Amino acid sequence: MSSNVFDELKARGFIAQVSDEAAVAKMFAEKRVTFYIGYDCTAPSLHAGSLVPIMAMVHLRRAGHRAIAVIGGGTTMVGDPSGKTEMRQMLDAGSIRSYGVEIKAQLDRYLRFDGDGALAVDNADWLLPLNYVTFLREIGRHFSVNRMLASEAYKLRLEKGLSFIEFNYQLLQAYDYLTLFRTYDCTLQMGGDDQWGNILAGVDLIRRVEGGQAEAMTFPLLETASGAKMGKTAKGAVWLDANLFSPYDYFQYWVNTDDRDVGRFLKLFTLLPLETIDNLAALKGAEINYAKRELAFEATKLTHGEEAAQKAKEASASVFISDTIYNEIKLTSTVTDGFNSLPTTIINRARLEAGIAPAELFTEVGLTASRGEAKRLIKQGGLTVNDERIDSLERMLTLKDVGPNGMLLKAGKKKIHRVIAD
């Protein structure tokens, strides 16, 4: 068991607040710690914004500690007001169960649930059967309304209006911690920094009810150097589900990291040694692109597996091949495999025989938001087909543009899509 995993987390930038830093560091150094993080089931997939807590769990599990992922089948029925200016959409029980299954499967890829080093539990198992009056008498009496209203999670919502159902959320999360403390000897809860008040409520509840000692630790809420929210793009969330956000697009998301974020993201989102990361982060000029590709490969490997990461890497490289090589029939297997990993749309052969206007096709495959935007980009020289600039609004895309690996469409330098005929 690693004795310096707490120092490792600090060095990588994972830690925002700790209830008792000396106690937590000592705990990790002297024993096997059981810790948990909760994941509410608000969508069919987690996204890149969830990766900081996931990666912290990975580091601790690798160091020999025991990870508990709490699937929030119960708490999602109420809705967490933390970090939200408006009440979350109420989901039906069937959707929550379905989302929970998907989220558990995603977390398993990172944590490898074996029942010993890592396990997943659903808080619906102990929250849904609760008798409300009994719960209020045994648990609710330990909570101060004044203290709850002073927490950041509630202060933000009070300005817009806080529903009574949301007001119960902190009690339920604290009860989760108490249940895990009793059942698994769980002594550390972690989460995003917006969860600080909720986690401390659980620490206090364990002290009041069981006379036990438990600790809290939070992670920073990340923004990119440009101020954008982590895990968001102009097209929406960067989902961890390959069916919602392809491994190629996921790879490209990390390749397009701002130069100022490369070192920080390598520490947070890869398992590369810190010495290696320092060397990569020190690269300047065009060489920083090598560091970005390492970041993209390692991050994609963790989320989608090494094979998918390798294919995405090859696809990313292949889009910069000259059109002479692109149209060559005898391509290397590496290049061919790379093209096969690109986001692809199948177009009816008859439509291509008749010819399709570029503005129509680029919009249809999602490279442009509208035909008007596509026409504007054509006038600016921003759209290409098979690395050839589309220089006229009258240009039609036909079967002649479909090579052995399809038709390669680009909007700018970073948005790429392949079209094949059927």
Question: In words, what does this structure look like?
Answer:
By secondary structure, the chain is an alpha/beta fold. It has three domains: 5-219, HUPs (Rossmann fold, 3-Layer(aba) Sandwich); 241-310, Orthogonal Bundle (Tyrosyl-Transfer RNA Synthetase); 326-333 and 337-421, RNA-binding S4 domain (Structural Genomics Hypothetical 15.5 Kd Protein In mrcA-pckA Intergenic Region, Chain A). Helix content is 47%, strand content 13%. Strands 1-6-5-2-3-4 form a six-stranded mixed beta sheet, sandwiched between helices. Strands 9-13-12-10-11 form a five-stranded mixed beta sheet. The chain has a two-stranded antiparallel ribbon with strand order 7-8. A hairpin with a 3-residue loop joins strand 12 (407-411) and strand 13 (415-421). Helix 13 (262-269) packs antiparallel against helix 14 (274-281), helix 13 packs parallel to helix 15 (288-304) and helix 20 (358-364) packs across helix 21. It is elongated, with a radius of gyration of 25 Å.
Give the secondary structure arrangement, pairings included.
Layout: H1 5-12, E1 17-18, H2 21-30, E2 34-40, H3 51-62, E3 66-72, H4 93-111, E4 118-122, H5 124-127, H6 132-138, H7 145-150, H8 152-158, H9 164-167, H10 169-184, E5 188-192, H11 196-210, E6 215-219, E7 232-233, E8 236-237, H12 247-255, H13 262-269, H14 274-281, H15 288-304, H16 306-318, H17 323-326, H18 333-340, E9 344-347, H19 349-354, H20 358-364, H21 371-379, E10 383-385, E11 388-389, E12 407-411, E13 415-421
Parallel strand pairs: 2-3, 2-5, 3-4, 5-6, 9-13
Antiparallel strand pairs: 1-6, 7-8, 10-11, 10-12, 12-13
